[in-house]
Amino acid sequence: MDEIKENEIIEEPEEINESNIKGNGKLYIVATPIGNSRDMSPRGRQILAEVDIIAAEDTRRSMVLLGKLGIRNRLVSNHKFNEYGKAKYFINEMLGGKSVAVISDAGTPCISDPGNELIKAAIEAGIQVTGVPGCCAAVTALSVSGFDLSSFMFLGFFPRENADRKKMLEKMRRGDTRTYALYESPKRIMELVDFFIRSGARCRMCLCNDLTKLHEMSFRGTPDEVREQLLAKGNYDKGEYAVIVEIDEDYIFNKVEHTVSAEAMLVDAMVAGSLSAKDAVAAVIADENNSYSKNELKAAALNLKRMFGG
Fold first, then answer.
1. What gap in Å lies between CA 149 and CA 143, rounded to an integer?
2. What residues contact residue 142 under an 8 Å CB cut-off, 6+ apart?
3. For the chain, what is the mean pLDDT?
């Protein structure tokens, strides 16, 4: 991104007005505050006041925010259980010249929130989609973590099942980045930390709780240190968590070093389980000791077929 030079005049965007919006039939993706209503941007507030329809994840929660902002506008629900069916309704409204703003309960829509189906449908229908940037819990947590942010990956909500959590940790250890952002429920935050402790994960964590609110808190350190900090707080199971994990360099898998060839692993699986080559690929992928990708294993299966026929 180009740097803003000293004394450089920044041109203000053209004022948005009701008639312009109605004539365009646009879809606006509007970020809302993640805790502090004063973080709502002036542009976002204006668009929410002037569009024809606001597509809200939870109309009851959105009414509270709009009330604080002094906005009275038409709200239509657009949550994960009805977004497939509602997309057609919103598209027809926009094709008829009306403009729609998508908001989630908090933060930027589509980041682990509903909205993607409507956006894809709008693009296919040739409707202009405009982002109105603002708050995002994951990005805010990354910015205050103090970790390496030269690259990072967003994982959404961490899996609930232990087997899926193990696979996710393996994925993190094999990734091309050391830093990961994820979300977790306050009711499961201690389970998450305990999982990293039981797994012997060598990493640093930054747990951000109630970001931008009056009593926001951050817990930093190793999984053991973070656990002690949570217990010291006492009522840690209140408020949503944005979690940043930085994997230690010596905990990352070296992807170029394989002690056993992919072909050998497939043959072992085929013999041990009387499996076909296709089933052996699936079995090896599920093996937590496997360090080969699905494509590498498929290539190895084809190589075995060429070598032995059949």
1. 8
2. 149, 152, 179, 181, 244
3. 87
Are the beta carbons of 118 and 54 closer than 8 angstroms? Answer: no
Radius of gyration of the chain (CA): 24
pTM of the model: 0.73
Lookup: tokens for 247: 């994997």
What are the start-end ranges of the H helices in the chain?
18-24, 42-50, 59-69, 83-95, 116-124, 137-145, 162-174, 189-198, 223-233, 262-273, 277-286, 294-308
Looking up tokens 């180009």, which residue turns up? 2
Q: State the Cα–Cα distance between residues 165 and 162, nearest whole angstrom.
A: 5
Which residues is 246 bridged to in the sheet?
179, 204
Q: What pLDDT does residue 24 have?
A: 53
Alpha carbon distance 289, 117 (integer Å): 37
| Lookup result for tokens 């053209």 | 14
What amino acid is encoded at 174 in this protein?
R
Which DSSP letter does residue 32 get?
Answer: B
DSSP reduced 3-state for 241: strand
The Cα 146–Cα 128 span in angstroms is 37
DSSP annotation string for 122-135? HHHTT--EEEE---
pLDDT at 22 over 60: no
Please state, in angstroms and as integers, the Cα–Cα distance from residue 282 to each residue in 107, 265, 270, following that order: 38, 12, 11
Residue length, the chain? 310
Classify 186 as helix, strand or coil.
Answer: coil
Report the Cα–Cα distance between both ends of the chain, in Å, rounded: 55
Q: Can you read off the two tokens belonging to residue 69?
A: 């902002």
- Which residue is listed with tokens 């008639």? 19
